[in-house]
């Protein structure tokens, strides 16, 4: 390369880096692939770099997104129902009001993702969702317990430390060993939820805000409620209520 000024060389390097990190496809190209896809011939988006794209309001049910990089992308109100999203990268993704019912999300980072008002009912999730916004999401019948079949890989469980689950519907959820430290669960519905893990401690709600949450008929054996805020929290009919949340008989 000829002797170019150092500032020009740096500009060329930075430009090359920008090109290297650009998404593999545009929204228009993704739309074209989805339009041609069907159940037998899904749109092949496996391992594609789709970072920073606006993919809102799209129907991905005939797509293969396994291992795709969706960091910071906007999938608000998109339909991903029934998909296998294992090993995708979804840090800081926007999934407000998206349909994620009955999806499989394994080995994924959803840290700081926006899943507010999303439908994740019946989903199977073993992921890091620390700091995520799941306020008013439909999380009924979710399977978010620890995955005991993969403990050789380390403890595989749903981690929701500091997550916002205000007003979320977690009825009938499987949450054994879920990490919910300092999560916001005020006004959340956990009726009939199962927080018990036969192999280890149950769900960890240390320091969580449970104000006006509903744990009626929930299974709480070995669940950890240390320093949790339980003002107005309902535990009627709950099984194995820990001493830390039992009402004070002297009052």
From TrEMBL:
<dbReference type="InterPro" id="IPR051082">
    <property type="entry name" value="Pentapeptide-BTB/POZ_domain"/>
</dbReference>
<keyword id="KW-0732">Signal</keyword>
<protein>
    <submittedName>
        <fullName>Pentapeptide repeat-containing protein</fullName>
    </submittedName>
</protein>
<dbReference type="Pfam" id="PF00805">
    <property type="entry name" value="Pentapeptide"/>
</dbReference>
<feature type="signal peptide">
    <location>
        <begin position="1"/>
        <end position="22"/>
    </location>
</feature>
<dbReference type="InterPro" id="IPR001646">
    <property type="entry name" value="5peptide_repeat"/>
</dbReference>
